[in-house]
Task: structure prediction
Amino acid sequence: MKIIIFDDDPTGSQTVYGCPLLLNWDEKSLEAAFREHSQLIFILANTRSLSSALAEKKIIEICLALKNFFLREGYSKDDYFYISRGDSTLRGHGVLEPATIAEELGPFDATFHIPAFLEGGRTTEDGIHYLNGIPVHETDFGRDKLFGFSTSNLAQWIEEKSFGKIELKNILHLDIKQLDIALYDEDGFELLLTFLSKLENNISVIVDAKLSDHLKILAKAIKIVSKEKRFLFRTAASFINSLSGLPPSTKTTSDLVSLKSKTADFKYKPGLIIVGSHVQLATAQLEILLKDNSCEGLEIPVSKLADIFILEECQQLISELESVLLSKIETILDNKKVPVVYTTREEIQFSSNSERMNFGLFLAEFMAILVGQITSKLGYIISKGGITTQLLLQKGLKLNQVNLKGQILPGLSIVQCISKNNNLPVITFPGNLGNKKTLLESYKLMEFY
Result:
C-alpha cells in the first residue's frame, strides 16, 4: 500500500530514502510518482510558510488533484495511507492540515498525532512532548512568533490549536505502557488491536513514543486493522519510517558524497551553503561554521530587502542587489573558498503575522533565485531551513520533482534531480536539527570526505 505524505516543508523525508519528492502535483508529476516502485510519495506542500487560510487552500488543492488523478486512473482513495507530516517541535498547522485532509479524503476512523522524532531527541511520554528531555513549550520553538504554543501536553495542545473545536475530554491517549505490553506480550498486542478496531468518527489519538520499537509495534497493528479501518496521521518523520518498514539503506556516506557535480575534467566542483532559518540553533551553527577558514560568509541585508519589499516598483532594485551579491559569490568561489550565504540575524518587526509570512516568502525566494543563477559552478548545496529549501528547489533550481537519495547524517537528507541536465545534489537541512557543530560537520563531509 502506498503512503502519501503531505509534507509541510522539504525535510520530512529525513528518515527514509529512494522515494520521489514532488514539488508540483499536476497529472504528469503524479503519474510519474505512482509508477515508481517506492511505496512512499512525498508531496512538498510547504504550508508552514503560509497563513492558515492559504495552507488550507493549498491542502484542498492537492487533495483535489489526487482525487481527480484517482478518478482518471480508476484508483480508490481508500487504498492509501495519508500522513500530514509536520515539525517535531510542534510548529505549523498541526491540527488544521489533518482536519482539511479528513474533509477531502475521508471519512477516517481516527487521526493519530505522533510528533516523536527519535533521531532528533523528540520524545513523547505521558502525553507530554519533549525536546531532549525539556517540555517543548519551554524551548525557543514554543515561543515561535508565528506558531508558538503554551503547553507540551499534546491533548491540551490539540484543544488550543483547534480553538476548542476538539475538546480535551474527547481526545484519546495511547501510552507507553500499552505499547510496551503489546511489544512483549501476545495478549498485549491483541489488546492494542482491539483498541484500534474500536476507534471511530475520526477521533483524535495522541501517541507516546520513546523508542523506535514503540512506533514499529503501532505500525504493525495499524496495518492489520487497516483492512477494516481507515486512519489518518499527523506525524514527524520517525513514524513514516516505521509505517513503510524500509530496511536500512545500503548507501554509504561515500556513495552520497560522490553525488557531487564534477567539472569537464572530472574534478569535484565546490559547494555553497545557504542559511535562511532564524531559529536560535541555526544561528549558533552558522557562527561555528563561519569560523572555518575554508568558508567565507556573505550576508543578505534583510533590512534593505524589507525596505524594498514595501515598494510598488521594486524589481529594478531587486535586480541591482542580486547583481552585487552574485558578483561577491563569484569572487568567493574564485578565491577557492565556499560561500556561506545567510540572512542578517536581526529580527525585523512587522505589523501582522501575515506581513511577516509574506516577507519571509519574499526573502526566501530572493535567496533561491540568487543561488539558482550560479548553480553551474557548484558541486552541491547545503540548504538550511525548510522554507528556504523548498523555494531553492522550486524557484531557484526550477524543479518539479527530486529523488531522495539518503542521509549523510541522522535526519539530514540529500536529494537530487532525476534530469541528466540538472543533477546538482542538495542537502536539505532542517532549521531545528542537530547540535552547534552539525552544520560544520555536514559541510566537512561534503567538501573533504
Q: What stands out?
A: The domain at 3-244 is CATH 3.40.50.10840 (Rossmann fold).
